[in-house]
Amino acid sequence: MERSGEKKVSLPWLDTGRLETGAAAQPGVSAARCGADEKHIQEQSFMGAYVLSKHACALALLFCGAQIAHAESAAAGRPEQPTRVPRDAAAWTAQITPYLWATGLSGKVSPFQKAPTLGVEKSFSDVLGDLNGGGFVNVWARRDRFVLSADVMYVSTTDAHGEGPLPAFQLPGIGIAIPPGASVDAKVDSKQFTAALQGGYRVVDTPAFTLDVLAGARIWHISNDVTVTASHPAIKSLTAKHGESFHWVDPLAAVRAFLPITQRLFLHVQADVGGFGAGSNHTWSSLAAVNYVFSDRLSASVGYKTLNVDYDRGGHVYDVRMRGPVLGLTYRF
């Protein structure tokens, strides 16, 4: 039971039905006022629902957008933060080393096909006196643990010497046999080109020691222009000129090692062996050098190199050993 004169408290935005009851029970409240209040309450209710709906849609869109972006990234197979590839593993580095080789020469050679074999014994000063020109260059390249190597040599010489008495032989360009016991004076203009090309893998790569294992081939090309004067009582003196060339390829297996001595000084050793009857009977080379590093780009080396080959095929003989000190300057890029 309600007491007389008490005002009724209501929450019209929760239950608008009570507004009508309250308005009818309170005298002096007009129907127009009740209609206006009801309209205002409905507008507030609509606006509240609109605001809540708007925020809910925004949250739903944000969540869906994140899910779509994640799905697209996964579908494309792209990680969210791409991993950087180290520069030394992705790019090639290379170095070039022109060098001087003060080599002597010893062994046996035939100046032309089926010619008598001549013994050769020359010091570096003798070779330098015969030298017309030449050059030596070494190139190395590396990508991660993969390595490539090229060592190229070209030498042009003129040599004159005599031999005799010799067994019978046929002198090219004359057409008659030289009888046994003849003496021969020969002048030989010789050109030699050699290129060792190899590729391999760095099997040990530590700050204290590196070791590369390689395989490849050494290409040989020998060209001779010979002027021969043969002397014998039966033929008196005969002179002929003849030019010819021959070449072959030797398979190679090689190793190369670096051993740091100090921060700027390190030891460099490399060796190869090959031939195996495929080209020459056998061939091998070795190099031991000490390198000094001036900067990241420049270093110098001094050492000792030997190159040996024994080739005897098709009437050509080239069985020699070249050895002597080397001096090189290396540029890295």
Question: Any overview of this molecule?
Answer:
With 333 residues, this protein is α+β, with helices and mostly antiparallel strands. The protein has four helices and 14 strands. The strands form two sheets. Strands 1-4-5-8-9-10-11-12-13-14 form a ten-stranded antiparallel β-barrel. Strands 6-7 form a two-stranded antiparallel ribbon. Strand 8 and strand 9 form a beta hairpin. The longest helix has 46 residues. It starts with 16 loop residues before the first helix and ends with a strand. The N terminus is likely disordered.
Please give the structural blueprint.
Elements: H1 17-25, H2 31-76, H3 87-90, E1 93-101, E2 104-109, E3 118-122, H4 124-130, E4 131-143, E5 146-166, E6 169-170, E7 177-178, E8 182-206, E9 209-232, E10 236-260, E11 265-274, E12 282-293, E13 298-313, E14 316-332
Antiparallel strand pairs: 1-4, 1-14, 2-3, 2-14, 4-5, 5-8, 6-7, 8-9, 9-10, 10-11, 11-12, 12-13, 13-14
Strand order, biggest sheet? 1-4-5-8-9-10-11-12-13-14
N/C terminus separation = 104 Å
The pLDDT mean sits at: 77
% residues in beta strands: over 45%
H/E series: HHHEEEHEEEEEEEEEEE
Strand element count: 14
**Gyration radius from CA atoms, angstroms:** 47 Å
The description of the largest β-sheet is: 10 strands, antiparallel, barrel
**Helix fraction?**
10-25%
Secondary-structure class: alpha+beta
Shape: elongated
How many alpha or pi helices?
4
Give the uncertain stretches in residue-range form.
Answer: 1-87
